[in-house]
Amino acid sequence: MRRLIFNLHLYTALAAAAFVLLMGLTGSIMAFEPEIDRFLHRRIAYVQPEPGDLSLAEIGAIVNGAFPGDRIFAYYLSPSPNLSCQVVLENSGTVYINQHTGKILGVRPDQLEFLDLVHQLHIRLAWRHDGDPGKRIMSWAAVAMLLLLLSGLYLWWPVKRFVITKGAAGRRWWFDLHNSVGIFSFVFLLVLTITGISIGFEQTSNPLFYKLTGSQPSPQPRIPSPPPAATPIPMGQAVEIARKAVPGAAAFALIVPNPTGAYRVLMRFPEDRTPGGRSRVLVDQYTGQVLFAEGSRTAPGGARVTIANRAIHTGDIFGLPSKAVMSLASLMLVLQACSGLVMWWKRTRAKRDVSPVAKQGVS
After folding, report:
1. If both were cysteines, with which of 90, 98, 210, 276 could 302 make a disulfide (CB 3.0 to 4.6 Å apart)?
2. Could you give the maximum distance between any two Cα atoms of the chain, in Å?
3. Model pLDDT for residues 332-355, shown as the tens digit of each residue
4. What is the domain count for the chain?
5. pTM of this prediction?
6. Host domain of residue 145
7. pLDDT at 319 > cutoff 80
């Protein structure tokens, strides 16, 4: 049985090594994606805090004046006084603007950047195609990772190596490293893997979460037809309506609708540390009526499990400490893959070196 498990562990690792390495490298970066993004664009991401902010209408007027004819798609409100406001345009990209002074700080064109590539590699090998084959490959690579973790624990149990033997060298040193790193990072890697599988196979896992919690997804709202000759309410008013609909949550984004749509306000509670937030409100752009409101605190049970699963996987659940742990665990995954490949290579080379000697002995 041990030989069977060993071979299963070995050949699964060889087949999935490239994908495991990619998952670990990209995952370690993605844990600090917002922080890295702001650092890379610090000239336009940060502002000098000042009292008072411009209204969304004033910010929109400044951007419209600088980019005439380009429709504003969304506003991303500043989460703190030292971070700039962002205005997403339909064609020109994202405009960064100082919400205190109205100064346009810069524009990021709508094109693939380093962090976008890292994100897409992690999720789908940066392979966008019908049926999302890249995502399926990475999802099954996560299943292979789960198999490696469980089989690795089985193989580790008889030896129970926690440290690198003093004076160890060659294959022994790599063997001890592989075992030590594997057992100390096992729980974190197991959590990353299981939550990652849930995300990768969300079409199956999400309905399962609703079933296990005995809940149903929230019904999708119907957006009424606009009244004749109606005028949209101010954007700031839509944000205030959303804040009252989900008390305690802060609005961080406003999606501007077309003439037949509704304002979509994205919000987050203080405990919602994930950049995307998990609370949203739809506001009729003409009447101000709340068409839909769902906060992460009161969402159906299945939705809350899905939210928690993603927050655990990204490390957002407890803020910077948990992000650091998950980033480090992802790097340990890289170290595990590399040490395993080195052990296999040294073992294969040793067999090749021994074979000619064995043949001479027989002759």
Report:
1. 210
2. 99
3. 999 999 999 999 998 888 888 765
4. 1
5. 0.90
6. 2-19+126-214+318-350
7. yes
